[in-house]
Specification:
By secondary structure, the protein is α/β, with parallel strands linked by helices. About 35% of the residues lie in helices and about 25% in strands. The protein is built from five helices and five strands; from the N terminus they run βαβαβαααββ. The protein has helices spanning about 15-25, 45-50, 60-65, 75-80, 85-95; strands at about 1-10, 30-35, 55-60, 100-105, 110-120. It has a five-stranded mixed beta sheet. Helix 2 (about 45-50) links the parallel strand 2 and strand 3.
């Protein structure tokens, strides 16, 4: 199962999410997009998921806090307990044996980040 994890600011635009995802490797073969639960209903994320024809998979903040990521942001660590929301969400949803195939990439406007993981989906 291939999952794109997305981290973003509340007022993100679809173009920023798409740019970050493209920089991470693109949408080919994605089974879902994932982010922290509190942002799962954000209009831009919902629009991107609709465009890609994949579901949005929300991940509770306490689950993200338990995920070790190669990218470390002190701001994100203080807020969510993990180094990267994008990496942690992708890994959490991809399931057992998940591994990052793309670490966090950031849109040029710094409004969105994306990472891609693959796992068994369980």
């Amino acid at each position: 199962m291939k999952v794109a994890g997305l981290g973003f600011k509340r007022d993100v635009m679809v173009a920023s999410l798409r740019e970050a995802l493209d920089a991470a490797g693109g949408s080919d073969g994605l089974a879902a997009v994932a982010t922290v639960s509190e942002k799962a209903e954000t209009a831009a994320l919902q629009a991107l998921a609709c465009e890609l024809n994949v579901p949005v998979r929300p991940v509770p903040a306490d689950v993200l806090a338990g995920v070790i990521t190669p990218t470390q942001s002190e701001f994100i660590r203080a807020k969510f307990g993990t180094g990267s929301v994008a990496e942690a969400a992708a890994l959490a949803v991809a399931g057992r044996g998940a591994r990052l195939v793309s670490t966090r990439t950031v849109s040029q406007d710094r409004m969105a980040s994306a990472a891609i993981a693959e796992g068994d989906g369980e």
